Amino acid sequence: MATLYILFTMALMWTIYQVWPVRYLSCLKMNLRDSINKLPPSIKFLDVRDVTEFDRTHIPDSINISLGRLPFLWHKELSPGDEVMILADSCFKSRKAARILQRKGFRKLYTVHGPVLDHL
């Protein structure tokens, strides 16, 4: 019975962690296609989708680092002082990428509401 309580508590904590807002992530509720020129010119677009999805459609000059490789390859294209727009298939993936980058020292993180394909 104690094992059941522990498993339930762990599942509840994991669920809360996934839903909890990421500290330095701002979710922009706009159409990226129409507003891309209004964003700061220094912003870097990080697409965390798989390579096949990225090759099919992507924003020109965006950086593709899949979510699984992000903890290991972020430093090749990004630095903690950069403003980064995270493009992902889901809000879950955007938050996960933001948490990874937050642990690396990033403080200016943005994402758009909804999947990337809705904005391209």
Automatic annotation (TrEMBL):
Signal peptide: none
Transmembrane segments: 6-25
SUPFAM superfamilies: Rhodanese/Cell cycle control phosphatase (SSF52821)
Domain Rhodanese: 39-119
Taxonomy, superkingdom: Bacteria
Coiled-coil region list: none
CDD domains in the cross-refs: RHOD (cd00158)
Keyword entries, A-Z: Membrane, Transmembrane, Transmembrane helix
InterPro entries: Rhodanese-like_dom, Rhodanese-like_dom_sf
A Pfam family: Rhodanese
Protein name: Rhodanese-like domain-containing protein
